[in-house]
Amino acid sequence: MARTDDDTWDLASSVGATATMVAAARAMATRAEPAVIDDPYAAPLVEAVGIEFFARLARGELTAAELDGGDSPVGMSRFADGMAARTRFFDDFFAAAAEAGIRQAVILASGLDARGYRLAWPTGTVLYEIDQPEVIEFKTTTLAGLGAQPRVDLRTVAIDLRADWPAALTAAGFDPAAPTAWIAEGLFGYLPPEGQDRLLDQISALSAPGSRLAAEGVPSQADADEDETRERMQASADRWREHGFDIDFSALVFLGDRADVTSYLQAHGWSTTAATANDLLVRYGMQRLDADEGFAAVTYVSAEK
Ligand SMILES: C[S@@+](CC[C@H](N)C(=O)[O-])C[C@H]1O[C@@H](n2cnc3c(N)ncnc32)[C@H](O)[C@@H]1O
Fold it and tell me: Positions of the region Disordered (predicted)?
């Protein structure tokens, strides 16, 4: 179904299902040897969502290798490695921010991210998680049911990131005068180009000097053939359909001409460094992607204000 300005979802539908997909990849990565991440909550969260295809992947009943091949340039095995590297990158970002003395953190579009429950946060840290209400409610309730305890002062902010989330965040206790560590992982592709700019403006306005931001930047599609890109995305999903899961990811993302996150942040008072997906794969001891398109073209930006 096509996106609308005020669409909503749970973790089994639309954009919400992408959070379950990423958590399934984290469950696979947690079982891998050697493992570059450890997310013990990924598998039970995916199980609880109840999409059998992702639950089978999370349990190891269906392997990534069984989904490789077909017309997709990046198969499931490499996607899972990419998600493992990405998770580790953001884990390391928070560890470095804590080391630098930052005690306020925000996870934008938290999905099934369990960092509040699995990372070691310094005493006194407050962590805010923002996502759509049904997503927040499901994760919080499911983890409580599993007996998981947050390892930080965790405050959820259930609101759409297209709404006035800065007001909701501030109402939850966020202090704009304190330096903050922000992450935006797996988010920008689901925002239209102008929505990405607005979000970066809002983050900048709420960021005291010394704040840090780590974000996954998706490539601009200005010169690319959008139909071809959507067809390529559909090719990945074809293999999934053979295993009983039918979703049109290409209808969930916004393509078109969008700002380069690194340049945008530099123009708005941030100093930046950027890495590619392949840089991260190499950094964490995994094989590089052959493709130079799609997932390989995303960037991982670290910025400081
Ligand atoms: C690919 S998932 C990534 C989730 C999480 N960051 C991770 O990496 O596991 C995309 C997430 O973005 C959230 N999201 C996308 N657009 C949003 C919006 N407009 N408002 C709130 N959340 C949004 C979805 O609900 C979903 O949880």
Answer: 211-231
